[in-house]
Amino acid sequence: MTIKLKRHDKNPIMLPSENKWENLNVSNAGAAVYNDKIYLLYRAEGEERRNGPGSWPVTRLGLAVSENGYDISFRHQEPIFDSDPKSIWRKFGCEDPRISKIGEDYYIVFTGMTELGQTGDFLMYSKTKDFKHFTAPIRLMPELEQRTSGFLPAKINNKYCLFHRPMPNMWISYSEDLKSWTDSKCILQIKPDTWYSKKLGIGAPPLKTPYGWLLFWHAKNIKAEYGLGIMLLDKDDPSKIIKIQDEPIMTCEMPYEKKGFVNNVVYTNGVVEFRDKFFVYYGCCDHSLAVATVDVNEIYEWCKK
After folding, report:
1. Is the pTM of this model over 0.85?
2. Which residues contact 95 (CB under 8 A, 6 or more apart)?
3. Structural domain contains residue 38
């Protein structure tokens, strides 16, 4: 059997608002279930530019809530994580959050945008228990310039597990204190003549199932077209892929997935299990946010075969 996502017929579910900090683009949302609602931390861009007219926009993280998985019932009017001109590591803002619940805390890994290095991307993380109060962001794995990262929502042998991407492949590393990292391993590499020939990484943090860790991932081909995929990781050793679907579960097909701020992008940061479905939230062309679903039972059948 081949897994394909079903798009919501009212996509996109979120567009830019009139707020100056998010009136250009909203996309790439991390997702978590809290109090039987879905909380979305999303990337937002508005009028402010990093280095004057024509440069990339400053990015911020906004907060939205959905009670049914599809419709946005609440949207915070101010950013949750803002740019900070006084901070070297968030001078140009924050991007692409991913949320993992470990114990009673929700860990949020995002990219701090700087003017340092080759691309300026460095990882940071914050924690919350209630999506109202957030700890001050801390740098994460500062020795690497990278993005596309998130925690496994559990500890393995009392260690945190971080999925990350030293370009262009998917890696995993382990830490007891979130400072020193060991046992780094590349778990998936780009492959010529495939839909993941240019770069790849996790989409959302893995989800626990009876069969192992379910990972929705993303990749880009040499034509600069994005797609989403699915794989199953070993429950005791998440560096081990025990099943992977060769075909993507989604490619850029709809107009809002083909044309936008950056063309031909479908990119997920957040997937949740909610009311017998997996809800896959994905950014479209760095401009809008959409959602697609697949039945939990369908995924479980795929896992077993």
Report:
1. yes
2. 28, 43, 59, 61, 110, 111, 113, 121, 147
3. yes
